[in-house]
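Lab meeting minutes (informal)
Scribe: AK
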Amino acid sequence: MAFSIGANYGVLKSLNNLRTTESKMNQAMLRISSGLRINSAADDAGGLALGMKLSNQATITSNLQLSVANAESFVDTQSTALQTASDVVSEMQTLKVNFDSSTDIAVKALYESEFDDLKTQLGTIAVEKFNGEALFSAATKQASTTADGNGVVNFGGIDLNVSTGNFYALTQVEDLADISIGNGNNTIMDDAFDEITGHIGQAAGDSSALGFASSYLETKATNLEAARSRIMDADIVEETTNLSKYTIQYEATVAALTQANSTQQTVMELLLFPNKS
């Protein structure tokens, strides 16, 4: 091995190895502390871009899950109101039959009073609201909020508008406000009952559709998070192993650098040797 003053190849090589090992050691520590495999574009520019895109899609999906959950709550409240309304109309029909068949004026007065109370209750149900939004209206309309930016969830080729569901019209129910038990037409109450039960069936269909949408979105959110995690998140076990490896390698390189520097001392001793004699 040549001894020279101008350059010490061993020292230069050891320094280069030391810088490389230190960089890898710092990277492992950063990944462990942050929990991320990609902490900057320098780590993996393509992976960072894809990870950010997946995170954005996951956020949109999460927001839509909330929208669907709100829609489910709306439809559940709507179904409960419709079921109560059907019970009220059914009771009104019974009172009407009893009123018509009774000859006792006092009893008929009791039937009339109860009938009017139920009619008032039915009117209250017809104007019920959920979080400030009317459950029913005079004309059917649809409101929607979307996951893709346009307010529509698409899966299996089906577009499903979801936010607060259908605002069912209760036009036949509204007609009951103009009748009394004495002049009431049974057909009006029959039509109102049929209208309500029809809406109950529609609400059940809405609830089923929202349930499928909720399940789909839950699966989608899970898959998006798994894909993002595979790209962005660090394998802590692997990085801990790497940190141990690079720490040992770093210490070994420092020792090698110390040894490489000793050759310079040998040269100095050779230069000083004649003076000693």
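Next up, CB showed the second protein from the same session:
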Amino acid sequence: MAAQVTLEDALSNVDLLEELPLPDQQPCIEPPPSSLLYQPNFNTNFEDRNAFVTGIARYIEQATVHSSMNEMLEEGQEYAVMLYTWRSCSRQPNRVEIYEKTVEVLEPEVTKLMNFMYFQRNAIERFCGEVRRLCHAERRKDFVSEAYLITLGKFINMFAVLDELKNMKCSVKNDHSAYKRAAQFLRKMADPQSIQESQNLSMFLANHNKITQSLQQQLEVISGYEELLADIVNLCVDYYENRMYLTPSEKHMLLKVRVWGRCVQH
């Protein structure tokens, strides 16, 4: 009579099979596979433009300019954040201490405002320089990509946003006035150049729509700028009407360029 084997004994015998050596007498000639980690980055800002030396080499120059303009757009966004998040430093409860250290507290912020004034000058000159280059008689027949026109539209949007933020932030003007009074009392602005720059900053902050007005004045002296501006506006209108945008900021950019461009043309 055969001996009966319980289920537990059978499972135990099966587990013992895992410890049974089964050498195949073959050497291991393959190394263990190494893991690869791939992380795509689509925000290259045209850093790979030099690789395209054939086929579309004619657009390398445009890609180079496009890249530098995108960097200026990012800097403009930083100034927009600075203006939007500005909080008045001259309304703190410890006014006696602030009065004694007004220059120490406000000087870094006023330096930011001074850099902002210089930035908008450089940005307007850069934008008008590109418009002047594209409106040149020998360049009017050249192909201009939609992405490049949209980048110019983003510049217009940046100017409009920075101008409106500057207009609405009274605390910016108040802090600069407080710093100016303290600096004059402490005779920190004794040289004529510092006095002139401070006056220029005061006028820049006091005049509403100073950025867009300066932009319009410099555009009006460029021959044929209306045609290029019309191309930018028409492209933004086409993108808006066909809903060729993803985020609300892109949608609002198209609307602001459309309105500002038509106001300039009229």
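CB comment: The chain has a mean pLDDT of 82.
No objections, moving on.
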